[in-house]
Amino acid sequence: MVENYLRATGFFHVSRIGIIRGFHLMLNALVERWRPETHSFVLPIGEVTVTLEDVAHIFCLLGSTLFTDKSTAYAHAKYLPLLRDFEQIHTYSWGAACLVHLYRALCRTSRYDTKEMDGPLNQLFVWA
């Protein structure tokens, strides 16, 4: 029954994905190069950013990755109302929502007084 619901909403592929662990040094390096003013990473090759096209490529990471808390194991409860109407889920702009979530997390994390990273870190890892 759950598989049918996942297929109806277009998220069946999410149930087939595991959790990506590690590579914290790479994520730290990216966050240090994040510029909240431009929502981009400043790298030796120039400025780059995560785009909607990138989100579409790694969108197979919904529940365990895109809207996670810092444990990277759970989605925040504030997203549950979005899943209430199964008939409409496929019409939502999930890619844009994921991109906003990532940008917001990077902006919070790039502050000088931040001690921990949270948000869709696995999404950033896959992009990098």
What does this structure look like?
The protein has 128 residues and is mainly α. 40% of the residues lie in helices and 7% in strands. It has 6 helices and 3 strands, in the order ααβββαααα. The protein has a 3-stranded antiparallel beta sheet. A hairpin with a 2-residue loop joins strand 2 (40-43) and strand 3. The longest helix is centred in the C-terminal third of the chain and has 16 residues, at 94-109. The N and C termini lie far apart (36 Å). The model is unreliable at 60-64 (pLDDT under 50).
Secondary-structure-derived class: mainly alpha
What is the average per-residue confidence, as pLDDT, rounded to a whole number? Answer: 75
The percent range for strand residues is 5-15%
Largest sheet: 3 strands, antiparallel
What are the secondary-structure elements, in order, as H or E? HHEEEHHHH
Helix content: 25-40%
**Unreliable parts:** 60-64
**Main β-sheet, spatial strand arrangement:** 1-2-3
Overall morphology: elongated
Briefly summarize what is shown:
By secondary structure, the protein is mainly alpha-helical. The protein contains six helices and three strands. A three-stranded antiparallel beta sheet has the order 1-2-3.
